[in-house]
Amino acid sequence: MRLPPLTLIIGGASSGKSAFAERLVLQSGLSRVYIATAEAHDLEMEAKIARHRARRLGQGWRTVEAPLDLELPLSRIQSGEIALVDCVTFWLTNQMLDDADVEEEVDVLLATLGAMTRPVVMVTNDVSGGIVPDNAMARAFRSFQGRLNQRLAARADLVVFVTAGLPQILKGEPPAVSDATGGEHEDGSPAEDAFDAQARSGQRFW
Questions:
Q1: Which residues are catalytic?
Q2: What is the model's pTM?
Q3: Is the domain defined by 6-201 classed in CATH 3.90.230.10?
Q4: Phi, psi values for residue 104, rounded to 5°
Q5: pLDDT in tens, 86-113
Q6: Residue (of 37, 30, 10) closest to 119 by Cα position
């Protein structure tokens, strides 16, 4: 499967977006680099990180920890590699907790993505639903995240929304799936392929 330069996977909490993004990257056939932004500040987060690591175990991932600086690991992605950033939301949270200039950091991130010559898949949280947060920091986070998601979606070639583990294309076209001879086929994909016949005829895939 040939993925475009930038793919954005967006969804709510526990929507299945990370698992979907990982499957997408696995099916690219490229060497995979997992850029992890989460930090284990408590036992609950430790357990979540452990579950994600267990899911990737034995699949050939190279993991890079990057809670604040995404520019360096992204700039080091080599030919034949694909990067998965999971996730933008934790990266943004870390920037705010570090009292960083969030707008400046976002500009740097977007510029880095614009200069990338290797494919990147980014995972982010949708924060547009629900009630208005009851404290100033949470409201500021929601505002920053919403604007960042819009900027990422505007730059991305493919945007996929995941709900209950089911992905839906919001922007772009399904990537071409290569057959055994290296050619591309447009229908009749086996179930294990990322995009089946239903995907090709409508909005839902996987």
A1: 52
A2: 0.83
A3: no
A4: -65, -40
A5: 999 999 999 999 999 999 999 999 999 9
A6: 30
